[in-house]
Amino acid sequence: MIKTDILIIGAGPTGLFAVFEAGLLKLKCHLIDALPQAGGQCSEIYPKKPIYDIPGFPEVLAGDLVDNLMEQIKPFQPGFTLGERADTLEKLEDGSFIVTTNKGTKHHAPIVAIAGGLGSFEPRKPQLDNLAKFEDNGVAYIIRDPEVYRNKKVLIAGGGDSALDWSIFLAEVASEVTLVHRRNEFRGALDSVEKVQELKNLGKINLITPAEVIGLEGAKSLETVTVRKNGENEEEIKIPVDNFIPLFGLSPKLGPIADWGLEIEKNAIKVDNTLDYQTNIPGVYAIGDVNTYPGKLKLILCGFHEATLMCQSAYQRIFPDKKYVMKYTTVGGVTGFDGSKKEAPKAVVKSIT
Questions:
Q1: Where in this chain does the record put each FAD/NAD(P)-binding domain (predicted)?
Q2: Is 316 inside a domain boundary?
Q3: What is the pTM of this model?
Q4: Is the predicted pLDDT of residue 347 greater than 70, yes or no?
Q5: Beta-bridge mates of residue 112
């Protein structure tokens, strides 16, 4: 049994920042995430995508943001249960909770904070008759390790940021990259579109638009992809490939959390935003993109704000007889659980009482 002060479901940016805010209150955190690494979508889907709305960073790559957050929370030594999905929530007589994962790992905490982003994800798959045959045998929906595609012939389908970004990245890794999109226009960032066009002109990316994948062939593993080029000169092209990666986005689902007795509205968890982002179950909070309330904005920076207020409320629930005097972090620096300390600047700001 893993015991902690705040059990955080979801190790994306909002969940990671909650560790920092809890650490300032001397509260220990443990995080559960179905993904094999921390960072949520920022690590899993678009680590090289630039983000522009993080205060103090005119531009930061999603993967770098996660790295910075991990460095920021290091003094507070959070625990992680990765590669496991939170399945069941049990409320005990004393008001605390036991959360059990799909692999049977049990976690006990007085506070549960759901920071699962948009929930668990399932890839949107193309409608191809024999698609399942080639899953894990040439077909993948998420790129976890680009080195898998070293010196391989790769065909990517999609028109969003993920398809563009990975086409650009793999152009320097794979022996051949083909990008197929059903339209001539892309939905991704303009600079990515321009980079793909530049790589096409240099012969590093085969760009086929408007077109769609209509067939897969191979004995045991994938060998060829059939692409139908649409428009005035419609034709079918058989392209020899080692890997086919359809990047049509992910469908968010709350998964087992939807059965925990929480109040749900349009696949999001309703919370009280007038105070602390608590759900209809006392002691269970929802922060970040997973929650909903009047005026909700699904932005990372909003999740950071929600995490801060959630931790203040959690402290009061855990220690109802204590009064915490909040201070700016510039007053005394940040002291980790191991006694390590990052000193504050000499210019000290007065405390908040």
A1: 5-294
A2: yes
A3: 0.67
A4: no
A5: 7, 284
Residue 340 maps to a domain:
no
Q: What φ, ψ does residue 258 adopt, rounded to 5°?
A: -65, -15
Q: Which residues are annotated as a binding site for FAD?
A: 14, 33, 41, 46, 86, 121, 289, 330
State the pLDDT at residue 121. 63
List pLDDT tens digits, range 130-151.
999 999 899 998 887 788 999 9
Closest CA to 63 of 88, 46, 81: 46
Per-residue three-class SS string for the chain: CEECCEEEECCCHHHHHHHHHHHHCCCCEEEEECCCCCCCHHHHCCCCCEECCECCECCEEHHHHHHHHHHHHHHHCCEEEECCCEEEEEECCCCCEEEEECCCCEEEECEEEECCCCCEEEECCCCCCCHHHHECCCECCCCCCHHHHCCCEEEEECCCHHHHHHHHHHCCCCCEEEEECCCCCCCCCHHHHHHHHHHHHCCCCEEECCEEEEEEECCCCCCEEEEEECCCCCEEEEEECCEEEECCCEEEECHHHHHCCCCEECCEEECECCCCCECCCCCEEECHHHEECCCCCCCHHHHHHHHHHHHHHHHHHHCCCCCCCCCCCCCCCEECCCCCEECCCCCCCCCCC
Domain span holding position 152: 125-248
Mark which of 248, 267, 282 sits at the end of a domain. 248
| Identity at 107, one-letter amino acid code | H
Which residues are part of a known binding site? 14, 33, 41, 46, 86, 121, 289, 330
* pLDDT tens sequence across 198-235: 999 999 999 999 999 999 999 989 999 999 999 877 89
β-pairing verdict for 224-229 and 211-217: antiparallel
Per the CB < 8 A criterion, the answer to whether 7 and 89 are in contact is no
Same domain? For 39 and 97 the reply is: yes
